[in-house]
Amino acid sequence: MPHATFTELHYLAESAEWRTDRYYTYALMTELLQGWVGAYPGLASLESIGKSSEGREIWVVTLTNRETGPDDEKPAYYIDANIHAAEVTTSASALATIYHLLTSYDTDPVVRRLLDETALYVIPRIAVDGSELFLTTPATVRSAATIYPPGAAYDGLETQDLDGDGLIGSMRSQDPAGPWKISPYDARIMLPREPDEFGGDYYFVHPEGLIRNWDGGKITIAPSTAGFDFNRNFPSEWRSHATQPGAGDSPLSAPETHGVADFLLVHRNIHGAQLHYTAAGLILRASALYGDERIPPLDLRAYKTIGAIGEKFIGYRCESPFTAIRTSREYRRTECRSTGSTTASGSAPS
Questions:
Q1: How far apart are CA 286 and CA 290, in angstroms?
Q2: Among 212, 222, 226, 83, which residue's Cα sits nearest to residue 149?
Q3: Tell me, what CATH number does 315's domain have?
Q4: Are residues 160 and 278 in the same domain?
Q5: d(CA 56, CA 25)
Q6: What is the pLDDT of residues 177-202, one digit of tens each?
Q7: What is the per-residue pLDDT across 83-131, written as a single tens digit (0 to 9) for each?
Q8: Are residues 139 and 95 located together in one domain of the fold?
């Protein structure tokens, strides 16, 4: 049986043709967006909110019917995605939103009214550098493709693609105290060791990689050297890297987050937002910083009503991150960048 290629293993698109079951590299995503704007010039425009650390444009698509008025004279909704490099399913969701609105305008009266009377701003990928690294190599980074903190190097196991197959697999080390054993049917498969089992060959299983300065004892996973987290680089509740790892040198020190902030400040017509993530399997609504009792009743009703639509559509529960994700106040203060908008988990291509 022939081995799958790197592109096949990572479900990468090979052209700028739109497919819901593929992920797009930066160049193909750019070509895709430019193609859509060219095909629907009366409904879509494309501009950059700034350049990334490596010089890539960070694209925003404006969706509205220009014949009924300019976007900045209409109430607008904001959507962004892929602020964390590996969360490429969120980018797929944002691209699917753009495609659906453009291709449904002539046939769906709900979409037509939406684009006639309002505007949408969609940033399908904020972490353009980190996502490119994630999509084209086995590497995984938090947001940026650079080492953070600068010069960081840690003892322990550093994940690497040692066999060049395009994946970070697993490796095993034999140890009498290991909790795994080799399957008698396939030597590649590891089975759990029974609690009362002894006398055989047992193993520990580790991610594929190299161990820095191993002392012959326990093998620990080294902290990431690419831990810059754009989500923690916004001004609200910002704290230094020492107390909030990955926060950056100062608020908005990353050009990516600075570009997002500048865009939001200029577009005062934005009344709501949806920020795509992929960790919790929840639709997270306001607020990240305080309980529902502090939210104005009409606002809370709106959040819950919109959340119920999302629950019906995708099956995720709609919850307040203040109580749903962590009970720790420290988490609530440091992990969320928005206190007044709906935050949605992304969905995988299908």
A1: 9
A2: 226
A3: 3.40.630.10
A4: no
A5: 12
A6: 999 999 999 999 999 999 999 999 99
A7: 999 999 999 999 999 999 999 999 999 999 999 999 999 999 999 999 9
A8: yes
